[in-house]
Design a protein that fits this description.
Blueprint: E1 39-40, H1 45-58, E2 71-75, E3 82-87, H2 97-109, H3 111-118, E4 122-127, H4 140-147, E5 151-156, H5 167-173, E6 177-180, H6 185-194
Parallel strand pairs: 1-6, 4-5, 5-6
Antiparallel strand pairs: 2-3, 2-4
Helix pairs in contact: 1-6, 2-3, 4-5
Length: 203
Amino acid sequence: MRGATDALIGAAPQETRTAHRPRLGEREERAHATPPSLTMAAPSDRDAAHLRAACELALRCAPVATAYNVGALIVAADGATVLAGGFSRELPGNTHAEECALAKAHEAHGPAAALALLRGATLYTSMEPCSERLSGKAPCVQRIVDAGIRRVVLAIREPPHFVACSGVAQLRAAGVEVVCADGAAECAALALQANAHIGRGGQ
């Protein structure tokens, strides 16, 4: 799934972030309780496997005190064909996981084929796609919508450490189905494990 761009880029400049707020593990009980509009569903075996793969990609990130570690996997409309995967800062330029996965899909399949394959695809991500980037780059929500991704399955919501994320709401407003994999406790645990550095090393 990975080619020449597979090497982790650890020296890319990082976005400036605001001061840390309470620790990552406190997310669900407070500011990011799941809203009624978010689809909660026990994932199918296939969804659970793809989501776990995305969460395992997050563990490949080099920890950075001012950024989350996220993994993403794009699967074609057939539900089986993996188009590409990526993780935070894998490619140069302070890249996000979804951004890397989309770029790698275009590289692997070519622009025309990738455009067709991505339309109707499902994106699995260890954390809610970003709705705002302090660097000024396009947020992942916009990239997902522009690519024609029809469905997003996520393990956890984005905690409020850096920005107030409205990724789920924006995706749903754009007609993208969003599923929070309720019942995939193992995936949520992996997503949190990948971000154990947040609220600790960067204080």
